[in-house]
Write a structure and sequence with these properties.
Chain lengths: ~450, ~70
């Protein structure tokens, strides 16, 4: 692609940044002038003495004829809120300082980017330097809040867990009151003092067992998603403290391993119950290390979304990133219509065990939550415990989904979108953390 | 040899899932649960009768039941 040649365009030169410029300037108007082309023209006239100002509005379909505008002092691109301006250096300083102007940059020459290695290194360097310059400019002027997520560390304190702080759930005014959250797991310690007086609907889907937690995992997850606003015995650890909790026992203790497992038929029965009872959010901190997406979960996920329920599942703990094993998202999280949650630690780094996106359709990580050293409730008499897992990240997302559901009225796919759009972008690959760290509404 | 299975029913047949379940029984399945909201029928079938189930109208998939673990 030939660079655009300008006649009488002043001093085109190579700047110190190593890019070629035309001698003209690209001006960005502030938002308050958007749509007001006469105000934009007035601004250019006032600060840069531009007299002969062309506008895209002058042309059919806004197709600026660059031959006609070549001798204009300025050309305004009305839809973009941007103009190209001919001005001398003193005029351009005044222009940059005017409050109607957001930014001024030299007009650069752009090049098609080939795969071939002949793109000059200086060009790439110049592009990098120009971006760094813009970053400095905007962050200095306070126009953009730049977050350095790598340096930030969150800690448990007397008030709340690190996870509630990092997700802004601790600061949220929302409580999820009236929103139905199902936790399908090992059950709940129904005698735990932190849940006393809380309306809880519970049901076991394991023959011969009640919903009373025989292992602990379920109590921990229920605590993270829906634990109380305060407890006399510990810091706050729960997100949606006003939600209606539905506890389904679909996993039980395997005495040989100490872990909790359950047959699929019980898990499906639990999902059936949650959907039939109008649960808005279904939290599933369970899975199986299968790469293939099982067809039943995609159909169920879709049916749930259509019914206004969002199923949120743990991505899997089968990674050992310290040994270069990124793991993979297993079922049911690997279904497209089920949200897959990764785990980060209190420095917002991906957890060593947190599974990476799986190439199957739907096997990508969607979002991340706090999943290392997560403090929450545990069956009495232990009462509280800190453990790790994508299982712990999942109820953070579920509880926060309940807060957003209450705040916005959104359910299903719209709620999924809201969670993703409001996630805190991390300086980490999407295969590890999806859209980023889930964030609660204000 | 008996296999524990999960039979997923198509959207088109969810409304008549009881009839699909009856046809699955006729094809040799021991139906344990008919879950009409998620659209799934669970139960047991012999290895020999397994291929007959996929032929029942409204059946999207027949999968062997999996064991899940807490994460």
């Amino acid at each position: 692609m030939e660079p655009i040649k300008h006649s009488g365009a002043g001093n085109g030169s190579s700047s110190d940044e190593g890019t070629e410029t035309t001698g003209r300037y690209v001006v960005v108007f502030s938002d308050e002038l958007q749509g007001d082309s006469s105000a934009q023209a007035e601004a250019l006239s006032a600060v840069a003495g531009a007299a002969n100002i062309a506008s895209s509005l002058d042309f059919q379909d806004h197709a600026v004829d660059v031959d006609q505008t070549a001798n204009s002092d300025a050309t305004i691109f009305a839809e973009l809120g941007v103009a190209v301006l001919q001005a001398d250096s003193s005029q351009i300083v005044a222009t940059a300082e005017d409050r109607r102007i957001l930014a001024v940059e030299p007009e650069r020459i752009f090049y098609a980017i080939d795969a071939s290695p002949t793109v000059p290194l200086e060009y790439i360097r110049g592009y990098r330097d120009a971006t760094a310059h813009l970053y400095d400019e905007l962050s200095r002027n306070g126009a953009v809040e730049v977050q350095d997520s790598v340096a930030e560390t969150f800690l448990d304190d007397a008030a709340s867990t690190w996870g509630l702080k990092a997700t802004k759930a601790a600061a949220s005014r929302q409580d999820g009151k009236g929103i139905r959250v199902a936790v399908l797991d090992t059950g709940l310690d129904l005698g735990h003092p932190d849940f006393a007086g809380r309306p809880i609907t519970h049901q076991s889907f394991m023959p011969g067992l009640s919903a009373q937690d025989d292992q602990g995992h379920g109590t921990h997850c229920a605590g993270t998603s829906c634990g109380p606003l305060s407890s006399p015995a510990t810091r706050r650890y729960g997100v949606a403290h006003g939600a209606d909790l539905f506890v389904g026992k679909v996993l039980k203790l395997n005495p040989l391993t100490g872990r909790a497992t359950g047959p699929e038929s019980g898990i499906l029965a639990g999902m059936e119950w949650a959907l039939a009872n109008g649960c808005h959010v279904i939290s599933m901190s369970l899975g199986v290390d299968i790469r293939r997406a099982l067809p039943q979960y995609e159909l169920i996920g879709r049916r749930a979304l259509a019914a206004g329920a969002l199923i949120i599942a743990a991505a899997g703990n089968n990674a050992k990133r310290s040994l270069a094993n990124p793991g993979f998202v297993g079922a049911p999280a690997n279904s497209p219509s089920i949200m897959a949650v990764a785990a980060v630690d209190n420095r917002l780094r991906v957890a060593n065990f947190s599974a990476q996106s799986n190439p199957v359709d739907g096997g990508n990580i969607d979002i991340a939550g706090p999943g290392v050293a997560v403090h929450s409730s545990w069956p009495m008499a232990t009462r509280y415990r800190a453990i790790d897992g994508t299982s712990m990240a999942t109820p953070h997302v579920a509880g926060i989904a309940a807060l957003w559901c209450k705040a916005t009225g959104e359910t299903g796919g719209a709620l999924w979108s809201t969670l993703v759009r409001n996630a805190r972008r991390l300086d980490l690959p999407t295969v590890d953390v999806g859209a980023g760290l889930v964030q609660a509404p204000a | 040899m008996d296999i524990r299975i999960i039979v997923t029913i198509a959207d088109s047949h969810i409304g008549i899932i009881a009839e699909v379940a009856a046809q699955l029984r006729a094809a040799g399945m021991t139906v344990e649960q008919v879950l009409e909201t998620v659209g799934v029928v669970t139960g047991v079938v012999s290895q020999g009768n397994l291929p007959r189930l996929s032929a029942v109208p409204g059946v999207v998939s027949v999968e062997e039941e999996t064991t899940f673990q807490a994460l």
